């Protein structure tokens, strides 16, 4: 049986090196390419056709959810495992909505990551225990959350707005017109009942759609 070919996406070279060593010590895994941002991830996916993409969410420019969405838009069969520090249910739900096949937090032990890669490579879905608990708790709660109101692209634009990006910058990152970004911005505020941009960010943080680290 051939090796599971992996594309590793993380913006920290030292982190990538550590995970590359971990993965390649496991018989049957081979890291065929590494990317530091969403643009490189999309390009390298098309060039190398990996079996599994291991994708961080916190990337410079367009984030991991947008990268997942873009890759899956090009290849509906892409198998993407999100591996991230974000442990909020909202992030996981948006990642799955964008097309991810698994979601593991970086607080998970090495064995859990290796199992998740194998599961995703063989067509399954993978969740770390902490994320499974978070999703269960949210779904057992009453009412709809803000995460239910926004799609993956809207969530990405909200993250970029919260990080201080201008409409022109967001348009360039996502290959959209400035007018389209402004329309998304207005729709997002309307959907979640935000009166101002500051209120928008405050609501998004409270719902777990934007992490504190994203906000400048």
Any key phrases for this structure?
about 220 residues, alpha/beta, Rossmann fold, Arc Repressor Mutant, subunit A, 2 domains, six-stranded parallel beta sheet, 6 strands, about 50% helix, globular, DNA-binding
Number of domains: 2
The CATH architecture term of the largest domain is: 3-Layer(aba) Sandwich
- Which CATH class of the largest domain? Alpha Beta
- Work out the helix count: 10
Segments where pLDDT lies below 50 for 5+ residues? Answer: none
Work out the radius of gyration.
17 Å
**CATH H-tier superfamily of the largest domain:** Response regulator
Strand segment count: 6
| Helix and strand sequence | EHEHEHEHEHEHHHHH
- Main pleated sheet: 6 strands, parallel
Using the alpha-carbon principal axes, give the shape.
Answer: globular
End-to-end separation? 48 Å
The largest beta-sheet arranges its strands as 2-1-3-4-5-6
* Average pLDDT rating: 85
Characterise the protein shown here.
Helix 8 crosses helix 9. By secondary structure, the protein is α/β, with parallel strands linked by helices. The protein is built from ten helices and six strands, in the order βαβαβαβαβαβααααα. A six-stranded parallel beta sheet has the order 2-1-3-4-5-6, with helices on both faces. Helix content is about 50%, strand content about 15%. The chain folds into two domains: about 5-140, Rossmann fold (3-Layer(aba) Sandwich); about 145-215, Orthogonal Bundle (Arc Repressor Mutant, subunit A), CATH 1.10.10.10. It is globular, with a radius of gyration of 17 Å. Strand 4 (about 80-85), helix 4 (about 90-100) and strand 5 form a beta-alpha-beta unit.
């Amino acid at each position: 049986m051939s090796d599971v070919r992996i594309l590793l996406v993380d913006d920290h070279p030292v982190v990538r090196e550590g995970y590359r060593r971990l993965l390649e010590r496991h018989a049957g895994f081979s890291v065929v390419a590494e990317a530091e941002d969403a643009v490189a991830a999309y390009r390298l996916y098309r060039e190398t056709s990996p079996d599994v993409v291991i994708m961080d969410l916190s990337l410079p420019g367009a984030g991991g959810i947008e990268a997942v969405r873009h890759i899956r838009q090009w290849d509906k069969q892409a198998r993407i495992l999100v591996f991230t520090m974000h442990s909020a249910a909202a992030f996981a739900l948006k990642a799955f909505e964008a097309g991810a096949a698994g979601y593991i937090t970086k607080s998970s032990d090495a064995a859990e990551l290796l199992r998740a890669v194998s599961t995703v490579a063989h067509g399954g879905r993978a969740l770390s225990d902490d994320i499974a608990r978070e999703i269960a708790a949210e779904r057992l709660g009453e009412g709809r959350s803000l995460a239910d109101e926004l799609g993956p692209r809207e969530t990405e634009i909200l993250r970029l707005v919260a990080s201080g990006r201008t409409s022109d910058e967001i348009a360039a990152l996502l290959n959209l017109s400035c007018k389209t970004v402004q329309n998304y911005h207005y729709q997002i505020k309307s959907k979640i009942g935000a009166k101002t941009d500051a209120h928008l960010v405050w609501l998004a943080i409270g719902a777990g759609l934007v992490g504190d680290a994203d906000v400048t």
